[in-house]
Design goal:
By secondary structure, this protein is of the alpha/beta class. Helices cover 34% and strands 23% of the residues. Among the domains are: 2-124, Rossmann fold, CATH 3.40.50; 382-438, Beta Barrel (OB fold (Dihydrolipoamide Acetyltransferase, E2P)). The protein contains 13 helices and 19 strands. It is globular and about 60 Å long. 41% of the residues are buried.
Length: 440
């Protein structure tokens, strides 16, 4: 068997793609390795949401290029969003790369690998996906209790800061029966949690023009599968969260009471500049509706600091929104101009770097305060925790896991194992995690 090493940057969708890539290549004589130095084929699966991620990908290629001088038969490939976006630029910047393939070309890998094994340099980038029945291919999932299922890929929203419509294409949903089959296989393999993935996961099914194919109904169908397991879904677009979706989360005991709903800015003018299809007030209404429906629900978000033309007062609106909404956690980033995007051309409105990163620091400080406040609400409460990992410290077994609302929980016990569901009474709250003890 030849050795395959994949380094994955970016979101859960990229990680899921890497599992599919490893599965496809296992049919053609490649075995996964965690040691890149012993690999015959190196693949970096990239993210281009921020410039820092793209720079990291090129830096890694540079390291691998030097290794190829001592191992001429080594093959190097780059895929993902940077590959889709930069195409032939990669070959000029890193001529030692053997294969560049885009987000739409994963299922062409068998033919592409044959070509590079015959010493051909290949760039395979298409704008339309190569459609295959994904259940025809083995998926080599990371050893864990959690498994990801992409249910929709691409985006139709064209937010002015985002490259996803250019790198992932327009929204494309998978057939529900295909998803259910994959979920059944996952459960047979012993996984205890399924996460449904999509750039806009709650847009699922719109492209079928069938009112019965929705995320809400997919959750209901998956909830009927046998076994003790959980279901999550990310990432939600605010205005696509329907009452029926909220009802489905409430009805389905296996669906986690957790919503990740990126707001991006707490100011309606900036939201309009971002081409987000909701106002500050509409976002508030969605969050309050969810909080009023579910006890102990966790709501997380995303925010951008220093979007072009953002004033200090408008940025302050974001800090106020985080606090007023009592958000449990937020992903934060300074605005990063991306090629092809409308905001990337607003050069006359760019915020100075020092101001942008000073705002990011304040976002992060507010995020830390709110995360601690959120965690303190669970003191003396009992949470049902899925054990994900085990460590040993001072001759004691420490189990680490997640509650259904996505809270990270640590507790001491030598009674339980990875994959168990355990009721844990919380007795300590820190900024990023909770501590407790198991109870019957």
């Amino acid at each position: 068997m030849k050795k395959l090493y994949i380094e994955t940057l970016g979101c859960q969708m990229n990680k899921s793609d890497s599992e599919r890539i490893a599965g496809i290549l296992s049919h053609f004589g490649y075995e996964n390795t965690n040691n890149e130095k012993e690999a015959d084929l190196l693949i970096i699966n990239t993210c281009s949401i921020r410039q820092l991620s793209a720079d990291k990908a090129y830096s890694q290629l540079g390291v691998w290029g030097k290794r190829k001088k001592d191992k001429p038969n080594l093959k190097i490939a780059i895929c993902g969003c940077v590959a889709q976006q930069d195409k032939e630029k990669i070959r000029k910047r890193a001529p030692y790369v053997d294969l560049v393939f885009g987000t739409h070309n994963i299922y062409e890998l068998p033919e592409l690998i044959k070509r590079i094994e015959n010493d051909e340099k290949v760039c395979a980038i298409t704008t339309k996906p190569v459609i295959k029945d994904q259940n025809d291919f083995k998926i080599i999932r990371n050893a864990s209790v959690n498994a990801w299922i992409p249910i929709i890929e691409g985006c139709n929203n064209f937010c002015t800061y985002c490259v996803v419509p250019f790198t992932r294409g327009r929204e494309r949903s998978r057939r529900p029966e295909e998803i259910i089959t994959e979920a059944e296989n996952i459960l047979k393999q012993g996984f205890k949690e399924i996460t449904l993935l999509g750039q806009n996961v709650d847009s699922y099914g719109k492209d079928f023009n069938n009112p019965d194919i929705t995320l809400a109904n997919l959750l209901r169908a998956l909830n009927k599968l046998d076994g003790e397991f959980r279901i999550r879904f990310v990432t939600s677009y605010p205005s696509d969260i329907t009452d029926d979706l909220i009802n489905a989360v409430d009805e389905c005991e296996k669906v986690c009471k957790y919503f990740h709903i990126p707001m991006q800015s707490g100011n309606s003018r900036i939201l309009k500049e971002m081409n987000r299809r909701y106002t500050k007030e509409e976002y508030y209404n969605i969050v309050f509706k969810i909080r009023n429906r579910f006890k102990d629900v966790t709501i997380t978000s995303d925010f951008i600091a220093g979007f072009p033309s953002e004033t200090e007062e408008e940025f302050t609106d974001t800090l106020k929104a985080m606090e007023e909404l009592e958000l449990d956690y937020s992903n934060t980033a300074a605005y990063s101009p991306r090629e092809f995007t409308k905001a990337g051309k607003m050069t006359d409105k760019f915020i100075a770097e020092d101001i942008k990163y000073e705002r990011l620091e304040r976002l992060n400080a507010k995020n830390r305060d709110l995360a601690l406040l959120s965690n303190k609400k669970f003191l003396d409460k009992v949470l049902n925790v899925l054990v994900e990992a085990k460590t040993e410290k001072n001759n004691q077994i420490i189990l680490n896991g997640r509650a259904g609302n996505n809270k990270i929980v640590h507790f001491k016990s030598d009674k339980y194992k990875i994959g168990d569901f355990v009721n844990v009474k919380i007795n300590k709250a820190q900024t990023w995690c909770l501590y407790g003890e198991p109870v019957e």
